[in-house]
Amino acid sequence: MKKLRVDVWSDIACPWCYVGKRRLEAALARFPRRDAVEVVWRAFELDPSAKRVLDTDVSYAGRLARKYGVPVAKAEAMIRQMTEVGAADGLDLRFDKVRPGNTFDAHRVLHLAAERGVQDAVKERLLRGYMTEGEAIGEPEVLARLAGEAGLDPDEVRAALASDAHAREVRADEDEARAIGITGVPFFAFGGRYGVSGAQPAEALLGVLQKAWDEAADAPEQALAEGAACGPDGCA
Fold first, then answer.
1. Cβ neighbours around 115 below 10 Å, total
2. What percent of the residues of the chain are helix, what percent strand, and what percent coil, each to the nearest 5?
3. Going along the chain, which residue ranges are E strands?
4. DSSP conformational letter for 162
5. Beta partners for 223?
6. Which range marks the domain in which residue 12 is found?
7. pLDDT digit string (tens) for 138-161?
8. Distance (Å, whole) CA 182 – CA 104
């Protein structure tokens, strides 16, 4: 049976990645060959140098203002706009609850989840935990609990996080992202042929899905379009 693989580079600490996931799901729901599409979540750290859990004394708006060099009031307006965009896609983005932190271990858990066949469910749970519930996804025990709720064995998660399990796979994802020029996420690669940067509308993603299906062939990824995304310097 013909198959189509969609690789998505994204980070947990990325509101546009959550929106992009919803839009990809909406596109897949309308794609006639949905059962033949495999979605694989790949690792991308927006801030690899971040501490496990960052100081919460500074608000999300304050961090955003610092990144963009704008007044806090403007950052707050940006957050309101992002919240409205998320709501339109069925997401409850709670920037007032976000607890920023390092996401490397979260990506290791996602590789474990891929081995166990529950990667999408774990990805969803971590995004919701971070973007809606204010979970500190840099903390191993939080990761074990959330991943357990999504189908992984919490004790297996704890054991993996206590070792260097899947660290190599995360680094390989990031090396590949650099090799093909990914600087912001989400980034969607369809069938090893077409690439789309940013949280494009579902209609656009559906169009690329159909094109990749019709023209399935081995070729380097190439960016077709760009949309809203998050990068090391912030989200825009």
1. 13
2. 50, 15, 40
3. 4-10, 37-43, 187-190, 194-197, 222-226, 230-231, 234-235
4. T
5. 195
6. 4-235
7. 999 999 999 999 999 999 999 999
8. 18
- Each residue of 161-184: pLDDT tens digit? 999 999 999 999 999 999 999 999
The fraction of the chain above a pLDDT of 70, given in percent, is: 91
CB-CB contact of 60 with 232 (8 Å): no
Peptide bond into 48 cis (omega under 30): no
**DSSP 8-state symbol, 156:** H
> pTM, whole model, 2 decimals?
0.90
Which residues in 69-85 are b (16+ Cβ under 10 Å) and which e?
eeeeeebbebbeebbeb
Sign of the C-alpha dihedral, residues 201, 190, 227, 54? positive
**What CATH number is associated with residue 41?**
3.40.30.10
Average pLDDT over residues 26-41: 97
CA distance 94 to 147: 20
Q: Which amino acid is at 21?
A: K
CB 42 within 8 A of CB 9: yes
Q: What is the largest CA-CA distance in the chain?
A: 55
State the amino acid at position 236 in one-letter form. A
Contact yes or no for 175/140 (Cβ under 8 A): no
What tokens were used for 159? 């054991």
Q: How many domains does the chain have?
A: 1
Q: Average pLDDT in the 213-229 region?
A: 58
d(CA 106, CA 110): 6
Task: Give the total residue count for the chain.
Answer: 236
